[in-house]
Amino acid sequence: METECYTHKVTRRECLCPPPYSLHFMPASRRLEWLAALRLKYPPKKVYVCSHHFVNKRPTDEHPNPELFLGYERPVQKKRRTIVRGETLAEEVSQEGEGVPEESHRTVATQWEDPSLWDHSYARSQGVDTPIQNHVMTDAATQSGDFSHFMLQSDTDAYLYTGLPLDTFNTLVSTLERFRNGTLTLSVRDQILMTIMKLKLNRVLGDLSRQFHVSQSVASRIITHWIDKMEEGLRPLIVWLPRETIKATMPASFQKFFPNTTCVIDCSESILQKPKNLDSRGESYSHYYSHNTIKYLVGIAPCGLIMFISSAYGGRASDKYITMNSGILDYLRPGDEVMADRGFLIWDILFERRVNLVLPAFTRGGGQLTEEQVTSTRRIANVRIHVERAIRRLKVYKILSQVVPINMSPKMDKILRICAALANLRNDLIR
């Protein structure tokens, strides 16, 4: 049956009025955002969205995603929404020309109108059964509240957003469920996904808040809460292995030439957004990178497991200073063997604990290495490749491989431990 124009009493085909709505095809570049906004559990291959769902009646740069009449409550965007009173305020401006209203009258009858509905009179008219109403009623019964179910549908998706396999992420969520914050409306799975996405992709807060349809203040609360709780819950994943376990899991490359190795240590740095405070700027400046950085010590078992990660230090700190103050020396026992890079001049502090230090050979005064030293250095380099891979796996989380926002610096100690724990949740580094 052909629909009729309610104004001109003729069919839509004959009427000169513009069509009441238009359909817009979902672009591939914004597929995840549209599916999350529409909450389509089983989306078809081709998705068309009615113009009623867009702020500007179509996707625009400012409002590229569906935002209106979605069948669930969305956070109010106070900075972008304008509301206009239906009744003008009666103001008396002072005679001196200051332009300050002396009095305003607001009655109980004063009404407020959302201007986003001004161009949709046919959608507001009583008795008109619009496509919007039908869409809201049918979708409301089938929509689920978890954005993570739309974003994580395979291991590929899970690796992209979390750096973990999908099953591992699901197990992680179940383990951390006990840290639920009852004041937050998002599901625990969504909250944990948002937090890990901040670490994995280093997304800005505004981007995350729009993707999960919450305000920036709520997104900030979620990330702050879960950084604290994830660090607490994942702490057991960073453990110093007993000697027996280290030997039982030692790869063949270590067993042949370095069978007594307890751990391999190295320092890594992440570029830090330049602090405003001059003292902090000086303490964090790294001459090696010519940037402000944070620096941290990583202790890795021969099998590739991260057994220790220090707190974050300023880039100015030396490898020896961090080794002495990080707490790693408390784990070393007489007879242990530590492998390090030539920058770790820590013979004296390890000798006191009767711990052997293995370093690549280096020359002094322009001399040449002996054949035995060259062979030893090559063997050390071959096994240290695995350590570099472990650090690269740690830096899969872009919060460590990109510029660290200065507002995240107070949480960096916990972020380092979380990233190390998440790296340990992946498959064995060395096989």
Automatic annotation (TrEMBL):
Keywords: Metal-binding. It holds the Pfam family HTH_Tnp_4. Residues 186-234 form the Transposase Helix-turn-helix domain. GO terms for molecular function: metal ion binding. InterPro entries: HARBI1_dom, Transposase_HTH_dom. Its cofactor is a divalent metal cation. Residues 265-424 form the DDE Tnp4 domain. This is THAP-type domain-containing protein. It comes from Coilia grayii (Gray's grenadier anchovy).
